[in-house]
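Action item from last week, closing it out:
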Amino acid sequence: MNGVLVTALTSAFLGSIPFGLIFVRVFSGQDIRNQGSGNIGTVNVSRVLGFWPVGFLTFLFDTLKGVAAVILASKAAESLFQGWTFYPVEIWQPGGPLLQWFAGFCAVAGHCYTPWLRFRGGKGVATGFGAMILLSPWASLAAILAFGIMFFSMRIGSLSSLVGLLILVIAHAVLPGFEIGPHLIFGALLVFIILARHEKNLDALLESRENRF
């Protein structure tokens, strides 16, 4: 059995679970897709029902999706792949950076384009953050600090998320431990998907009509 394929499918499945939709229905009986911006992510959930507890639970479980996907591809899960085929083995090895970043990317893609909601999902920030906690912990810390500072000063969720993403990319590139390799392809794709999902927010920001909290 091909371990890369199983990693892709499992990570995408984890990412595809629409926790925002689930928690909003459990706590209020509403469909979050018909509320606010219609997005199932933390920002819209928090705007509609508040950050505590529904927004917090959405953020926590969306983050854990990214964490779980990377763990799946880490050395901790190496026993799951005994006897499975990886191609080429030297690159796609369990615990190797390429497989880990690939898993993080698949989780974000699954979240943003979940098949359970006709391929309309969230924007990938929390799930991407969860993956990056393991892939680049210090850059993730810098990103969450940047997000917090921007959010409490501007009260705009999308802007705060984009600034956090920018700081994460910069911090990962400049902090010790940065390595150039094929894994960065999936890192770039992960960032691209999140940016693409924020296209309408970018337009609204440029036109000064983005909603504030």
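Closing note: The CA atoms of residues 174 and 207 lie 32 Å apart.
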